[in-house]
Each structure stands twice: as C-alpha cells, then as structure tokens.
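It is worth pausing here to work through a concrete case rather than discussing structure prediction in the abstract. The textbook approach is simple: state the sequence, then state the predicted structure, then interpret. We follow exactly that order.
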Amino acid sequence: MFKIIMKLFCFTMISLFLVSCSSLKSEHYVGEKVPIQEELEEESIWQFEDKVFYVRTIGSEDSATITASALQWNKSKKKYEVEIFQVALTQLEINNSDGSFFLNLKDDKDGLYTIFCLSPSTNEKDMAIFTIDPKVIKKHIQEGKVKAVKEKDGFLLKLTKEELDDYVRKNLNEIFDFSSAGIIKSLKGFKK
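Step two, the predicted structure:
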C-alpha cells in the first residue's frame, strides 16, 4: 500500500500543471509529510495525458527535496517555458485511521501550496488525483466555515496549519470532487 501511495504522489505531481480550473491554495501543506524518496530513483519520468514530467529527488529522509518540472508552450511568447514545483506527499489522520493522502505542490513564485487529494487506482499501478469542488468552497466561505478568498483560478485559504488540517479532516468528503479524477502514469524511475 505504501508503494501505491508513493506512486500516487508522483503521478499527482503532474496534475498541478493540468489544473487550470479551481484549485485550493494555502501557505501550509495538509497533514504530515510521508517519506517517499526510498520509492523513487533520483530521476523519474511521469505522464498525464499528452504531457510528460521530469521528477528529481535529492537527499534522503527529512532533508529530501523533490521537484517536478515540465515544459509548457507559451502561446503569446511562442516558446517553451519550464515550470518547476517542490513536492510534498502528506497524510492526514482521520477518525483514528491512517487517513487520506494529499499531494501538495509548492510554487516557488508565490510560496503557496496547491493541494490535491490522492487515491490509488484499481490496477495498483496508476494513481488518481482529485481537485476541489468550487461550489462547496464558496458555500463554506459564505457560511463562515472557512476563511478563504476567491482568486481567478481557485481559492486561497487564510488558515493556520492547525486550522487547515482540522478543516480538511472535518470536510474531506465535501471539499474534493470525487466524481472526476485525473490518472497519472509512471514511465521510468519508480522502484517496484
């Protein structure tokens, strides 16, 4: 199961590049970090639909740094640009169980984490990634359930680390849109 979660982590890193719709951002990552560097080679390659991503793991244990990068075509500049994100796979205990896993992608430009929920697919080889349900987040803001602001591409949570974990823990099944998922596949570099 741990290897599956590790795959999920890597596969979902890719999805950040795909999420141009609603995203959930925070200054903090959800839950506690899960060490995955033992599951990855120093360099690995992942695919989501027609996009390919390069993942690099440097260091070990608590000092490990994992980055994901991809080339994105900039239509206005008519050239490829490199996008780079730091990656944190995390786990949040829910109801005294192992809980759920999350992919947190930190953008170096703004220092914010984009948060995704992860789940292994049925073939135990690929991973599914889930984004938020924007209608639920809007409703929670109006009801005062969460402090957040609407941005052009999603929502920015205005919560402490403890408040973030508590909000996700209590509202996990509402926050994320489990009716649609992206699937990420390992092409090279995942230790089996």
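Step three, interpretation. The CA atoms of residues 22 and 154 lie 4 Å apart. The two ends are 12 Å apart (CA to CA).
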